[in-house]
Design goal:
By secondary structure, the protein is mainly α. The protein has a domain of 31 residues. The chain has two helices and no strands. The model has no long low-confidence stretch (mean pLDDT 82).
Length: 69
């Protein structure tokens, strides 16, 4: 990212993590997980949100274009 954005000084290559033996704070999961959602699930969420946006648009158009008494 540093090279792509021409950042000076460059971003560090390290990741700062909390110590798991410290008693304060939330439970720490220190394993880095790859993206666990399959592409089908991403497409399903995208379709769901586009459907919600389309429904909202239709409702706005119908409610605003109705004749008022």
């Amino acid at each position: 990212m540093s090279a792509a954005w021409s950042l000076q000084p460059a971003l560090s290559d390290r990741v700062l993590r909390l110590d798991p033996v410290l008693p304060l704070g939330h439970e720490r999961d220190l394993e880095l997980h790859a993206n666990t959602l399959p592409p089908e699930k991403h497409r399903g969420y995208a379709l769901q949100w586009f459907g919600l946006a389309a429904t909202t648009l239709v409702l706005i158009l119908v409610l605003n274009l109705r004749r008022r008494p």
